[in-house]
Amino acid sequence: MKPSTPVRLGSRGKPEESRAAILKAAIHEFAQHGIAGARTDAIARSARVNKALLYYYFKDKEAIYQAVLDQVFSGLRDTVVPMLEGNLSPRQKVLNYIGAYFDYIAANPRFPRVVQGEWIRSGTDRISQMKRVAKSYFQPIYQKLGQVLREGIAAGEFRPIDPAQFIPSMVAIIIFYFSAAPVIKTLMKVDPLAPERVAERRAFVLDFISAGLFTRPLSAPGDRS
Fold first, then answer.
1. Considering only CA atoms, which of 219, 222, 200, 33 is closest in space to residue 106?
2. φ, ψ for residue 67, nearest 5 deg
3. CB of 106 within 8 A of CB of 200?
4. For each successive 10 residues of the chain (225 residues), what is the average pLDDT?
5. 44/10 Cα distance (integer angstroms)
6. Which of 202, 208, 206, 201 lies closest to 223, judged by CA?
7. DSSP structural state of residue 215
8. Cα angle, residue 71 at apex, residues 67 and 72 outer, rounded to 5°
9. Cα torsion at 22, 77, 136, 126 (round to 10°)?
10. Residues 26, 67: Cα–Cα separation, whole Å
């Protein structure tokens, strides 16, 4: 009996590995060039698969982009929603949520630029697509976080803020740092994505949001992030 032939990554024999490699390469390509400038040749080359295999998994570049968006947003939803559940205080849930959100983006710093490209493209021909994304991924986060904020306000843990205004501000202070990393690097002559800089930013984000929301200081006993 002949020994089995090892299956290459770029084959149909390992569909999950091949698909994951394509999506990883696509995230980089879309972050660098947007969907208009991204090339399937570059994605296939970076993923170490041929174009025939790429089109076996995805019918066209738009389908790859859609899969990238689903991966980015589903990963975020599945990471942060559990932080808003359970029996912890509203204050601790928010701290856990901020930390988890920040860590997810810090581990995937290209994601903001990919996502921003979708917002820019969201003209009339993209409305149904954006509604799908919002309903599947953003709505569960928004509803859970809004509920926690209202509970915290009622309990006297949070200032009486408007969740509709505060939630986008929470997201923006996390996302902007990573989407603007190339500009920050040029202006400040430091690497904003270096581990020590990311750690400094994380601490600042927690402190900044807490100062705007909590009725007592972040350093109060029992706080965990």
1. 200
2. -65, -35
3. no
4. 46 74 92 84 93 91 89 92 96 97 92 72 62 85 96 97 95 92 92 96 96 85 62
5. 9
6. 206
7. S
8. 120
9. -60
10. 10
Q: Is 218 in contact with 211 (CB distance < 8 Å)? A: yes
For CA atoms 165, 193, 26, 42, give the dihedral sign.
positive
Residues 6+ apart with CB under 8 A from 6: none
**What is the identity of the amino acid at 30?**
F
Locate all alpha helices (DSSP H) within the chain, ordered by sequence.
15-37, 40-47, 51-57, 61-80, 90-107, 111-121, 127-133, 139-154, 163-179, 181-188, 195-213
- Are 39 and 29 contacting, i.e. CB atoms less than 8 angstroms apart? yes
Check: CB of residue 35 under 8 Å from CB of residue 121.
Answer: yes
Name the residue with tokens 């990393």.
181
pLDDT for the residue 77: 93
Give the integer Cα–Cα distance in Å for 102 and 105. 5
E strand or H helix at 39:
none
User: Using CB atoms within 10 A of its CB, is residue 135 exposed (0-12), middle (13-18) or buried (19+)?
Assistant: exposed
Instruction: Give the per-residue pLDDT at 1.
Output: 45
Res 4: pLDDT: 47
Please calculate the CA angle 32-194-137 and round it to the nearest 5 degrees.
55
